[in-house]
Design a protein that fits this description.
Elements lengths: L4 H10 L2 E5 L3 H6 L5 H4 L11 E5 L20 E3 L2 E3 L1 E5 L7 E7 L8 H15 L5 E7 L3 E8 L2 H9 L13 H13 L1
Parallel strand pairs: 6-7
Antiparallel strand pairs: 1-2, 1-5, 3-4, 7-8
Helix pairs in contact: 4-5
Length: 187
């Protein structure tokens, strides 16, 4: 499979792991020194870097993942200079952080048991030790039922507390649920 430069650049900009050998310290020292006037009150920190990790995910224009890429499919540039890729590995076992939302609004009261069972099975079958999840319940309001944890029993215990929200007014605004999820995932 041939990857265009644009696809490779897009891949490097987006999440496979390539470890790239950085330019030697002599190149770093060739850069123009930062003057005191340019740095202002900010201290200038200079370091020699020999290895840089680059994480990327490569997708086709339709959003599907591009599998089985090799080191030869990537070219890495720094300041217009091509860098040698000295090590390359595919990371397929990275930890996952996820949020589960459960609709407990009055219209779902007869399905809450089914939702609870499905969510419990998901946590049992999908979560690994390194993964974390939180649980939000939404009806009239949006409530954080369980904050991030890697404990499946804690998540299942939180699911067991869910009851239908029979207050008038229906399901709360979707924007609040989105904001709650974004807030938790950004934490």
């Amino acid at each position: 499979m041939e990857i265009t430069r644009r696809a490779a650049a897009l891949a490097l900009a987006s999440g496979l792991v390539g470890i790239v050998r950085g330019q030697e310290s002599e190149t770093i020292s060739k850069r123009r020194p930062v003057t005191e006037a340019e740095s202002g009150d900010q201290p200038v920190i200079r370091v020699d870097v020999n290895l840089v990790n680059l994480f990327c995910t490569v997708r086709r224009h339709n959003g599907k993942l591009v599998p089985n890429l090799t080191q030869d499919d990537f070219r890495v540039f720094e300041d217009g200079q091509e860098q040698n890729v000295t090590a390359f590995s595919r990371e397929t076992d990275l930890p996952v952080k996820l949020g589960m939302l459960v609709d407990i609004s009055g219209s779902q009261r007869n399905l809450i048991g089914t939702e609870r069972d499905a969510a419990s099975a998901f946590f049992s079958n999908v979560m690994r030790r390194q993964d974390e999840a939180f649980l939000l319940a939404f009806g009239h309001d949006t409530d954080l039922v369980q904050d991030f944890t890697s404990s499946v029993p804690k998540l299942q215990a939180a699911l067991d507390t869910l009851q239908g929200d029979m207050r008038a007014g229906g399901t709360g605004q979707p924007a609040y649920r989105l904001a709650a999820c974004q807030e938790r995932l950004a934490a």
